[in-house]
Amino acid sequence: QVQLAESGGGLVQPGGSLRLSCVASGFTFSGSAMSWYRQAPGKERELVASISSSGSRRNYADSVKGRFTISRDNGKKTVYLQMNSLKPEDTALYYCYVPRLTSWGQGTQVTVSS
Description:
Helix content is 0%, strand content 50%.
C-alpha cells in the first residue's frame, strides 16, 4: 500500500532553515507528481509546493515563493522541501501528498518561534 513518511520538522528560530523529507513506497514514485501541504491550528490545509514527476516543473504558494524549494530524488523515492528564512506564520503541520492517488502522509510539525 501507499506509504509516505515525512521527517525533518522541528523547532527553529525566525530566519532559520529546515529541510523536510518524504520517503515514498507502494507506488510508482517516478511517475507521480508530488506536493507538500501544511495546516496551521484553526486553519484549512493549504498547498505549499508541487513538483512534476520529472522535477522539471515546480509551483509554489505566493507566501513561500523565494524562500522554499521543492525537489525530488526519484532514485531514492524521496521528495524534499527546503525551507529558508522561516517566519512564525510558517508554523504548521506539513504533509506530503500524492495528487493522483489522493494519499497523505502523517505529517511533520514545524514550529518557528524565538
